[in-house]
Amino acid sequence: MTDAQDTAADSSLRTSGGTPPEDAGSSAVGAPTPLLEPREGIPPVIADEAALAEVVAAFAAGTGPVAVDAERASGYRYGQRAYLVQLRREGAGSALIDPVACPDLSGLGAALSGVEWVLHAATQDLPCLREIGMVPTRIFDTELAGRLAGFPRVGLGAMVEGVLGYVLEKGHSAVDWSTRPLPEPWLRYAALDVELLVDLRDALEKELDRQGKLEWALQEFDAIAAAPPAEPRKDPWRRTSGMHKVRRRRQLGVVRELWQTRDRIAQRRDVSPGKVLSDAAIVEAALALPSGVHALSALNGFGHRMGRRQLEQWQAAVDRAKALPDTALPQPGQPVTGPPPPRAWADKDPAAAARLSAARAGVSALAEELGMPQENLVSPDTVRRLCWEPPAVADAPAVRTALAGYGARPWQVEQVTPVLVAALATNDA
Fewest CB within 10 angstroms: 31, 283, 302, 372, which? Predict the structure, then answer.
C-alpha cells in the first residue's frame, strides 16, 4: 500500500459498530485490507530526555483514550522488562519510546493519569509498564472485551481483521526486542500494533453495549486496574518443565540447586535462563545424579559444546544437592492451600465431588448461553473452593457473600449465584 492509498484508507476506517461475534473473522465490507504503514509513517524512536519531554507534552494535550503497548524480549533476556513502548492518542499521533534509554517514564504516566488506557491483553503488559513508572487508573482491554463479547479468536490480529476489516502483519511478535538499533520493519510492526487499538475499542464498546455486557466489562477492567502487583511465585523451580518425572527428594534437591544456579547466571548475564541451561537438561541431571563431570557430560543437554568450566559449575551444583542432609531436602509436591485436586474428590468427599460436577455443568451451560468462556464467567478456582467448603447454609445470600470474598465481581455474583445455589444442594445420593 502506498502512502497515498494508506491516507485514503485512513479517512474511512471501517468499524463494525457491533459486528456479531459469530461473524468475526470476515469483514462485513469485503476482503480484509492489509495495513502496511502507520498513517503518519513510522515515528522516530524516543531515546533522550528532551524528545521524551516533547512526547509527554503532546500526549498530555491529546484527547480521548490512549492506546498503549509494550514489547518484551521473552526467550532472549532475563525477566520481563519492556524494550519498547508504543502509544497513540488523538491529537498526539503515535510514539515509540525506548525504555532502555529512557528508563523512567513516570512523567508520561502522570501526564496520562485519569485517561483511559487501551491495551490488548492488559495483564501481560501492565507489570513491565509498572516497572518504568507507567500505571493506569482506567483501562479498556480489547482482548478481554472480545472474550466477554464471545469472539472465537481474540488475538489482536484476528480482532482487527474481524471487527475492522484490516490485516496486521504479525511476523515480528517473537523477535529480540532488546536489539539495538531496532530494524525499521520491527518499528513499523510496533507502530501498527497501536494504530487501530482505539478504533477497535470503540467498536467493541458498541458490541458489548448491544449485548448488555458493557457494565460487566467495565467491572472487569476496573478490577485489573486496581489489582496490586503480583506476589513473587513461591518455589519457582518447581515449574521446571518435566518435573513430573522427578519423584525422589534427593532428585528434587538437584533440580532446585541447578535451577537456582542457572537463575543467578542468567540474571548476571541478562539472558533467558533457557539459553543458559535447558529445563530438559536439569531434569536429566536430577534423574541421573551423575558422580562427576565425565558422567554429566554424557547426559543430554551437557554435550560436547559445553566447556569444562561450565560442566564443573553444573556438577558442583549437583554435588551440593547430593551433600544436603535429608532435613534440608525439598518435600515432593507443593503445599496445598486450597482444595485437593478434583480427581481425588470422589474418594475423599463424594458429596463435594457431586457438587462440583453439578456446578461445572451449570456454569458451562450458563457460559454457553451468555456467549463467553467459562473462566471469564467465574474463576474455576472459586467454583472448586465453594464446592469443597460450601457455606453452612448454602442459600443465595451466603453464596453471594462467599463469591465476593473470593474476588468475584458483582456481575459475576449476580449471574452465577442461582446456578451455584442449585449445585450446592446436590448430594452424592
Answer: 31
Map out the domains of the chain with their CATH numbers: 3-226 (3.30.420.10), 236-328 (1.10.150.80), 342-424 (1.10.150.80)
The radius of gyration of the chain from alpha carbons, rounded to an integer in Å, stands at 26
CB-CB contact of 18 with 206 (8 Å): yes
Q: Compute φ and ψ for 184, nearest 5 degrees.
A: -55, -40
Which residue is listed with cell 448488555? 212
Query: Do you know the residue count of the chain?
Result: 429
CB contact at 8 A, 376 and 147: yes
Cβ contact 106:183 at 8 Å: no
User: Nearest CA to 42 among 95, 80, 5, 84?
Assistant: 95
Hey, CA dihedral for 139, 144, 148, 152, is it positive or negative? Answer: positive
DSSP 8-state assignment for residue 306 = S
Q: Which residues contact 161 (CB under 8 A, 6 or more apart)?
A: 25, 27, 32, 167, 168
| Block residue for cell numbers 442461582 | 418
Place of cell 515432593: 332
Set of cell numbers at residue 273: 535462563
Residues 5-50: pLDDT tens digits?
333 333 333 333 333 444 443 444 568 899 999 999 999 999 999 9
- For residues 364 and 370, give the distance between their C-alpha atoms in angstroms, rounded to a whole number: 10
- Cell numbers representing residue 362 in the block: 451449570
- Cα torsion through 215, 140, 74, 82, rounded to 10: -140
In order of 15, 69, 96, 107, the CA distances from 243 in angstroms are 47, 34, 41, 44
Q: Of 373, 368, 339, whose CA–CA distance to 356 is shortest?
A: 339
